[in-house]
Design brief:
The model has no long low-confidence stretch (mean pLDDT 85). The protein has 3 helices and no strands. By secondary structure, it is an all-alpha fold. It has helices at residues 2-57, 60-69, 90-104. The protein has a domain at 2-75. The longest helix has 56 residues, at 2-57. One of its GO terms (biological process) is cell division. It comes from Rhodoferax saidenbachensis. Part of a complex composed of FtsB, FtsL and FtsQ. It is found in: Cell inner membrane; Cell membrane. Keywords: Cell cycle, Cell division, Cell inner membrane, Cell membrane, Membrane, Transmembrane, Transmembrane helix.
């Protein structure tokens, strides 16, 4: 009888220690989950803030102001417009000239 009682006491102590370990692990995992959820909320808030800031940075008024101040660009007016005309490259022009000169000598 004494042996059975000793075995049962050891089984109860072992199961109690196992239960304490499982509860500790459960609390640790729950705390980690709670921290992860808080981080997710923080990241979602920061993402929303960054999206708003991105939209503010891309406004046409800001882009125009930066172009004027930093790149020293200005609005186009007919007074400062330069028109560029296309002329054939010199190599193609000399080939055309040689070809026409060769046809006239025949």
């Amino acid at each position: 009888m004494m042996r059975i009682n000793l075995v049962l006491v050891l089984a109860v102590v072992a199961s109690a220690l196992y239960l304490v370990g499982v509860q500790y692990e459960s609390r640790r995992v729950f705390t980690e989950l709670d921290k992860s959820r808080a981080d997710a909320r923080r990241l979602e808030t920061e993402y929303g803030r960054l999206q708003v800031e991105k939209r503010e940075q891309a406004t046409s008024a800001r882009v125009e102001r930066l172009a004027r101040e930093k790149l020293q660009m200005r609005q186009v007016t007919p007074a400062i417009t330069s028109y560029v005309t296309y002329s054939a490259p010199e190599a193609a022009a000399s080939v055309a000239t040689n070809a026409s000169a060769g046809q006239g000598s025949k």
